[in-house]
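G., the chain you wanted modeled:
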Amino acid sequence: MEEKDVELATFGPKIVEKDLIINQLEKTCDLLKKELRQCHADKVEEVNGLRAAISTQLVTIVGIREEMETQQRTRAQEIERLEEEKASAISEQEAASAEIQRLKADHEEFQISLGKLQQENESLEGDVETLIGMSVRSEAIYIEENQRLSDQVTILNWELGLIKGISSRLSVPILTTSVPAR
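Predicted structure as tokens:
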């Protein structure tokens, strides 16, 4: 037993020291376990907070996506409406352009007709001037002819008067009507 006592005496303090170290390690392990549990609880709480934040963000993202889809549909409808308005405006513009072309053609026809009418008017004015000239000449000729005939009637009436005077002296019946003066 003595050997055992020597061994105990030699190894005893080491065993006690080892037991102390083991106790300290156990206490340290317990503290670490406690800290780890607390840390785990903190992490679980942090993860739950992150999950809640992610869930809230997902709800927000879904809401944003739905809003964007609504806006996209609204924009698509607005684009479609604007394209219809554009097509209508282009159609109206083409119709207006065709109307302008028609009006230009009508205006050109009017200008041509106006030119022809002006030429006809000038021609008619020339004809009127010619007719006026002819009328003036005809009137002058008529006046001259009337004067000549009037002179002849005067001469004939004078000659008739002479013949009547001679016939009354001669007692020969003679035509007694005179030619009216003009």
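The mean pLDDT is 86.

Shout if anything looks off.
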